[in-house]
Amino acid sequence: MSQSNLEKQEAKLEQLNKKIKEEKYKIEQRLGKQIISQATLEYTNLSNDQIKLLAKQFSEFLKEKTVDH
C-alpha cells in the first residue's frame, strides 16, 4: 500500500474517532440534562463534589438494577 493511501486511511480514522468522541459528548450532555431535569435539581446549586456524589449514587443504582435481572 502506498504512503498516500495510508495517509488517507489515517485521516479517515482520525475523522471517525473525532466523530465518535463528539457523539459520546452529545449523549453525555443529554443524559446529564435529563437526570438533572427529572430530579428537579438546580444547576446553580451543584458543586463538583455534589455532581461526583450524584454520579456515584446513580452508577451504584444502575449496577444494582443490572444485577437484579
Care to describe what's here?
The chain starts with a helix and ends with a helix. With 69 residues, the protein is mostly helical. It folds into 2 domains: 1-38; 44-69. 83% of the residues lie in helices and 0% in strands. The protein contains 2 helices and no strands. The chain has helices spanning 3-38, 48-68.
Question: Would you kindly provide a brief summary of this structure?
Answer:
With 69 residues, the protein is mainly α. It has helices spanning 3-38, 48-68. The protein folds into two domains: 1-38; 44-69.
Instruction: Please give the alpha-carbon distance between the first and last residues.
Output: 49 Å
Oligomer: single chain
Q: Compute the gyration radius: what is it?
A: 19 Å
Which word captures the global form? Answer: elongated
Q: What is the residue-mean pLDDT, rounded to a whole number?
A: 89
Helix content: over 70%
Largest sheet descriptor? none
Strand tally, please? 0
Low-confidence stretches: none
Judged by helices, strands and strand pairing, the structural class is mainly alpha
Order of SSEs? HH
